[in-house]
Amino acid sequence: VLETVVLAAFVVTCLANGPSTVGGWELISGSLAACFWCGLVGVGLLLPFVLERLVSYASHRAQLVWIAVSILIGGFMMRWCVAGLADFDPVRAYAVMSYVSPVGVF
After folding, report:
1. Of 39, 47, 48, 46, nearest to 82 (Cα)?
2. 6/71 Cα distance (integer angstroms)
3. What is the pTM of this model?
4. Of all residues in the chain, what percent are helix, strand and coil, respectively (each to 5)?
5. H-helix or E-strand spanning residue 80
6. String of b and e for 25-63 (b: at least 16 CB within 10 Å)?
7. Distance between alpha carbon 60 and the CA centroid of its chain, in Å?
8. Phi-psi map region of 104: left, alpha, beta (phi>0 left; psi -120 to 50 alpha)
9. What distance separates the 2 farthest-apart alpha carbons in the chain?
10. Can you tell me the distance from the alpha carbon of 64 to that of 76, in angstroms, rounded to the nearest whole number?
11. Over its length of 106 residues, how does the chain's per-residue pLDDT go in tens digits?
């Protein structure tokens, strides 16, 4: 539950902060959305939570392995998303958006 709160605070901070707004929107609805929603939120947060609630004592070791693997995949997806946000550097975005072409300003 704490990871979900921290992740929500991170996303809200990205969306509320001026220069990082573009990256925040890319994270939740752009090119990083599938990685974020399916990988990080789905596999990394929701799947372990559901599996922990469904642990049976008959095969609990195998279920704990699946929980651990899904947490590791979620951690990898978090790193992938945060590294992907570096592509949306506000300084580079401004330089690209203010490019003057022979036809006019983009």
Report:
1. 39
2. 15
3. 0.75
4. 75, 0, 20
5. helix 60-84
6. ebbeeeebeebbeebbbbbbbebbeebeeeeeeeeeeeb
7. 29
8. left
9. 71
10. 18
11. 888 899 999 889 888 877 778 888 888 998 889 999 999 999 999 999 998 888 777 778 888 899 999 999 999 999 999 888 877 766 655 555 555 455 554 4
Token pair of 58 as six digits: 């008959």
Assigned token pair, 19: 């220069």
The 8-class DSSP code of residue 104 comes to -
List the beta bridge partners of residue 100. Answer: 105
81 CB burial (10 A radius; 0-12, 13-18, 19+): buried
Cβ-based neighbour number of residue 14 at 10 Å? 20
